[in-house]
Amino acid sequence: MRKRIIVLMLFILPTIFFAKEYVSENIEMLSLKNESIGLLYKGTEVKSTENKYTLSGWVMDGNEYIIFYSDKARIKLARIDENFIKNMKVYKIQEDEYGVKWKKVDMNFKLKSPKSLVNNENELWKNEAELYQRCGSCHKTFDFHEYTPNQWPSIIKTMKNNAGYSKKESKEVSVYLQYQSLKGKIK
Ligand code: HEC
After folding, report:
1. Residue 140 CB–ligand 1 contact under 6 Å
2. Per-residue model confidence as pLDDT tens digits over 64-76
3. How much distance in Å is there from the Cα of 72 to the middle of ligand 1?
4. Is the CB of residue 63 below 6 angstroms from any atom belonging to ligand 1?
5. pLDDT tens digits, residue range 84-120?
6. What is the pTM of this model?
7. How far is the CA of 41 from the centre of ligand 1 (A)?
8. I want to staple 77 with a disulfide (CB 3.0 to 4.6 A). Which of 18, 44, 45, 99 is the partner?
9. Is the CB of 18 under 6 A from ligand 1?
10. Straight-line distance from the first to the last Cα atom of the chain, in angstroms, rounded to the nearest whole number
11. CB-CB contact of 77 with 41 (8 Å)
């Protein structure tokens, strides 16, 4: 019985100490000493404890300033100032099938405006979901899974004028589609 309680605690404890939150607009990242260290992009999931945050992701060897969702899904989570790349903790290094070296990293930071975080992922993309409907005016609206997170950005680049998106809107729809195509796919 006691063993069972301990096992249960192992699962529950991390969810008490770390809350999952999502970035609802691009926000400035600060080091634990309050220096400006980079930009966190909309859609990124962070773990929080009180007013400190942790981000996990993957960086390309030699181009560590962009943190991606994974070595397979190149969704940008954050852009880190060159001077603060050293603040990342590297967990593992592996090579992908094209010979590119990837590092799995963690980074601790604070935020200038923590109010830009939301608990519910579904609150993030209302505007983008509406904008995506425009894509159905000339042909079918493609299912998210028909293209990978790495393909969507270039599709949006070629179709943005067709849909009449501003530069900002096309970036936002692009990221929205990357996350949607991920669901139930590459982890
Ligand atoms: C004004 C009409 C129009 C709108 C709006 C439009 N498209 Fe297209 N789309 C086309 C045409 C025409 C083609 C085929 C010729 C080409 O590739 O340029 C096409 C082709 C495509 C293809 C390639 C299909 C294939 O079979 O290879 C994709 C994917 C696509 N569109 C996605 C989108 C997305 C996403 C949006 C919204 C951002 C969008 N389109 C908005 C006209 C449009």
Report:
1. no
2. 999 999 999 999 9
3. 25
4. no
5. 999 999 999 999 999 999 999 999 999 988 889 999 8
6. 0.88
7. 26
8. 44
9. no
10. 35
11. yes
